[in-house]
Every structure is written in C-alpha cells, then in structure tokens.
Amino acid sequence: MPIVTIQVTREGTKPGNDAVTADEKAALIKGASQLLLDVLNKPLESTFVVIQEVNTENWGWGGLPVEAYRKQRGLKPG
Amino acid sequence: MPIVTIQVTREGTKPGNDAVTADEKAALIKGASQLLLDVLNKPLESTFVVIQEVNTENWGWGGLPVEAYRKQRGLKPG
Amino acid sequence: MPIVTIQVTREGTKPGNDAVTADEKAALIKGASQLLLDVLNKPLESTFVVIQEVNTENWGWGGLPVEAYRKQRGLKPG
Amino acid sequence: MPIVTIQVTREGTKPGNDAVTADEKAALIKGASQLLLDVLNKPLESTFVVIQEVNTENWGWGGLPVEAYRKQRGLKPG
Amino acid sequence: MPIVTIQVTREGTKPGNDAVTADEKAALIKGASQLLLDVLNKPLESTFVVIQEVNTENWGWGGLPVEAYRKQRGLKPG
Amino acid sequence: MPIVTIQVTREGTKPGNDAVTADEKAALIKGASQLLLDVLNKPLESTFVVIQEVNTENWGWGGLPVEAYRKQRGLKPG
C-alpha cells in the first residue's frame, strides 16, 4: 500500500523536449512501483505513484529560484 | 487546527462531467470539515482542506499510468 | 484512487484522552472513505487514508507554537 | 538538507495583482532559506523550497470554499 | 533537484523483521535516486529521498484501518 | 491561509544539542509566519506551520542515506 510522490521541475531534461513526456512519466511509475516490490515485497497493484510537476519559478535552491541558482553556479538543468 | 489534503485524479466521475465540479469540491470541503468536528471536536473554522487534482498521466497504479491500468483490469474510473 | 491525508495535533480532544484513540482513527478513515464514495463515486477499496499526528510543539499558528497561541487567545484545543 | 513547502491560494494579495508574482516567489524562497540558515545553521545550498499555488475553489476553510468563507465572515483575502 | 517521498506502513515485510530495516531504507534511497538519473538525467546529488513510516492504525484502505481490511480480504501485508 | 511545511532531519545542528530544540522550533514558526505576512500580506493568525522531523536513516541524498553521503563528501550536518 505504499505511496510514492515524485516532485520534479516542469521542464524537459533531454534535448528537444520542453516538458516531462508521457513516456518518461510511465517509466517513473514503472520503476518506482518495481522498486517497492523488489525491496519490500509490495505487490505492484498496491502501490500508488503521484508525479507533481513544479514550475521552475516555484522551486527554490540556494536561496534563489532554481534557474537563477543554476546560472550563478554554472549548473545544467537537473 | 487540522489540515485535510484530498488528492484525486483530474477527471469527471459522473456522466457528462469531464472534471471535478465546484459543487463536488464544496461537498468534499464541507464533509471533511464536518468529519473532524464529529470525530475529534475540531471547530469548523480551525480546519483547512486542500484539494489537489492530478492529471491521469501523473498518477500510477499497478506499475502503470492509471488509465492503462484500468484498461488492463477492466476497471471504471474511480 | 484518492489519497486523503489528515494532519492533526498529537493530543486527546475528548475528556480523559491524551491522544487520538484507535477508535477515533477508524472513524476518520471510515468517514473520509465514505465521503469520496458519496461525492465522487470512488469505490471504498480504491481510497487510501493516511493520518499524520504532529506534536504540539511542531505545529504553529499565529506565529507561535500552538499551545502558546491557544493560551494567548483563550482557545480550547481544537 | 531541509525542504520547505509553502502552500498558498493562487491569487494576488496586493492591489493590482491577480496572482503571486515572480518577485514575491523569489522573496519567499530567499526568506525561507535564510530562516533555516539563521535558526538551524543549514547552508543555503542545501535547502529546497517548493511553492504550491492552490486555486481558491480547491481550498476550504470553515467548512466552505475559502471565498465563500471570507464573504460570510467579512474577511479580506489572506 | 527532485524530491521523492516514499510512504509505507511501519512494519516488516520479510520473515523475521518487524520493521523496515536500515538496509531496506538504503536500497529504497539508492533505487529511487537511480531511477531519476536513468529516466530524467537528474544527477544523484541533486535528488532528495524522504521515507515516511506510518503506523498501521494510521493507514486506511477500503474504509478500514489497513490490518482490519487485510483480514477481511484475506490479504497478506503489502 | 497559507500552510508552511518544514522538513528537517531529526538531529541537533548546534554544539551540545542532539535534536531540534523547542526554542528553535518556535523560531522557525515565528519566522515562517512573519515571512508570509511580509511578502504576501497574510495575517499571522491565518498561517499554519508544520515541522516534520525525519530520522537521518530515512533521508537520502546522493543515492545514499544522508549520514553516509556526508561522510563520503566530507560535509558537516546541515
């Protein structure tokens, strides 16, 4: 009966994408559910996964909105 | 001072609706607040209710996005 | 497939109790699940309820830990 | 490594704004991160801040959607 | 910069354990972080994982505390 | 009516403390509530703050439980 909540920024993380794709979401759901089965023997059908996409201006890191922080530190999106 | 968070898929669950309606949201708020009053004596004005609607492609069940899982299992939305 | 999260302070709210009792928890679970069935036609077996009890020193209201706020305002627990 | 989640209604709270502005979001991020540094010595770069904006019809207070509750009580947005 | 929150009941799920073990927690953390790297190219060091253990009497399924629901349905813990 | 949730590891962050103290919690509550007043004009009495303390073995960073990650990277608690 686990619940896995995955919070990520609403942006693409591979070239040519500007958002998390439906295929990537399906892969996150499959992988998270499988992880709970492998580690804790939780049946796939008893796990819920919720993906929350957060606009980059709503995500803070280092005291700054994340895009400003990445620019300051020379980081790629991630 | 309770906080009740209700997470549901962003879809209609009655014929002819394709989303949770304002009336249904008001009924969830009223019912959840009344429940805390009935069971734990919490005054209505000290309870917050937050409804989070989640796109169906962001909700996983059985290792699949929920619409794929329902199709596989012959389940209705719910 | 809803998820209902109920956050309350870890304290009794009826005379003679110093905690939320197992019976009160069962009543919260029953009522919240029934609410989703009544309002959105969600089957009981597809709703998860999670109750989170929070120590009073970890709950803030009015800029103060909740027990200090209640004392300042002459409020009963709630 | 703290995580600070700030949930607010999706509306303006100063004259002429109908939403939380990017500058206000940046101020929330800066202030919350600084608070964790000041109180618990957490380095700025180890704190995440997530701002969640909630539509007013999805936020309940006093057993009512918040705009109905404010009207009933003669409260300003807040 | 993802955040993965894993909520599970506070109980053992393998013979002889009565709780989630430190090794199982480490495996959940490793697997969830790797998943975000594999699917969305998120560097390991930018992912936080938070495991929340919930007492069984605080977890509801099917309108009942989970242990009562499992007994009614003849389900194993999971 | 904002809700501010602050998640931190359950450990002391100043010499001689092995936990977040009641005074530190009160300072977090005061500061977070004041921040919402300063930035968004939210009255103190309409803000809830919830502090969640997470055991270090339940917090992951860099694919590892946080204490293992800090040791690997030569980081202080934070």
UniProtKB/TrEMBL annotation, chains A, B, C, D, E, F:
Cross-referenced InterPro entries: 4-OT-like_dom, Tautomerase/MIF_sf
Record-listed E.C. numbers: 5.3.2.-
One GO MF term: isomerase activity
Top-level taxon in the UniProt lineage: Bacteria
Keyword Ion transport among UniProt keywords: no
Family: Belongs to the 4-oxalocrotonate tautomerase family.
Name of the protein this chain belongs to: Putative tautomerase
Species assigned in the record: Paraburkholderia ultramafica
Phylogenetic placement of the source organism: Bacteria, Pseudomonadati, Pseudomonadota, Betaproteobacteria, Burkholderiales
